[in-house]
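Our preliminary data section would be incomplete without showing what the modeling component actually yields. Below, a chain of 327 amino acids is followed by its predicted structure, encoded as tokens that our downstream tools consume directly.
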Amino acid sequence: MSQIPPPPTNLRGAVDLSSLVNRPAAPAAPVDGAPAASAPGDALALPSLYFEGTDANFNDFIDLSMRVPIVVDLWAEWCGPCKQLSPILDRVVAEYAGRVVLVKVDVDANPQLTQAFQAQSIPAVAALVGGRPVQLFVGALPEQEVRDVFAQLLELAAQNGVTGTVTVDGDAGLAPEGEAAEQAEPEPEPLPPHHAEAYEAIERGDYDTAIQEYKTAIAQDPRDAMAVAGLAQVSLLARLAGKTLDAIRAAAAADPRDAQAQLDVADLDLSGGHVEDAFDRLLSLFPTLDAAGKDTVRTRMLDYFEIVGVDDPRVAKARARLTSLLY
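Predicted structure:
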């Protein structure tokens, strides 16, 4: 990661970098609402270290990356590994005390950015340094490995003259028109006790405990939709724990009639964001199975619907197909 690659061809048009490609990395034009700095290492006032990136506002962050490295977290609400990685990224960004800024991009809501960063699976983490994209890693890495990646990113940024820092000032603006891209996030409401215990267990990698906490929450309130979705997500993480991508795909390819192998690769597809592939794999497998096998696939599909979100149009389409197979 010693040299910033040129922007991929398809990044232009989705996120226009053309005006920045030949611009010197520093000093950049001051961000509106922040005091002008005389050198690239001077501090820049922003409302937060954490922002939501969208197809509409992302060029503001490209501009900001001329002063400070921008870490881009590509995620989705239904993605279990994304939720495992997110608090790690938050902690590491906080530890760097303004030397990096984190921009979170919901891939479902921002298809242009998803295409721009070539996000074939999520979670995917990239960066912007001096207006140019850098691919960092894919998947939920352990915290120490994330720290190692950030350290390499800072070295790369320094080599390219991007050495600014950020101070947090709630009155500072970010967008060129004077509107902040996002104000500092409000304090979230505390989670219900069993949900909180489950989240802490997931962060530790203790999926069995998280499963039990969600089951307890559901037993206390069967209408707890968050617990139902959480149980489906952590069950997916538990099934994939300790398995390698190559082994899962090899087993499925070796015997297309092996129901467990197909279930495993469907889990892998869903965790990587290939929702329609996961749905199609199990729905194509369904007619070939006996009654017990069909019930297993039906249950797994219902879990997938909770993970992806029952209002997602892909879920509606798959649910209709499943219903037609059942009746």
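The longest helix spans residues 291-308. Strands lie at 43-46, 50-52, 70-75, 101-106, 124-129, 132-138, 165-168. Preliminary results of this kind motivate Aim 1 of the renewal.
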